[in-house]
Amino acid sequence: MWVGVRRYCFTLQVKPERLEEYRRRHEHVWPDMLRALRDAGWRDYRLFLRDDGLLVGTLLAEDLAAAQAAMDATEVSARWEAQMAEFFINGRHLVVLDEVFNLEHQLGEWQ
């Protein structure tokens, strides 16, 4: 684990009738979007989608707000967000979850 980096977890709600298209859109994300995420400090970014539309995302970053701001400043993110906004219930508001258990912390292996 990198010093100063923490894991973040968030949820969003995808419209149930749009699940298959949402999955398809993520099969081949634009290369410039992938590079922008990397350059903005998003590491080990993953999305998990439940059949009812619950989307759970995890990522490693030094500062989630700074990583989001860096993405918001890119043209490619504006294009991606404009196309993806229609998939979400209640917009694209991330609900960040608090970590309540970490095995490595309790075992004393976290650095």
TrEMBL record:
Gene3D superfamilies: 3.30.70.100. InterPro entries: Dimeric_a/b-barrel, Rham/fucose_mutarotase. It comes from the Bacteria. It holds the Pfam family rhaM. This is L-rhamnose mutarotase. It comes from Dactylosporangium salmoneum. The lineage of its organism: Bacteria, Bacillati, Actinomycetota, Actinomycetes, Micromonosporales.
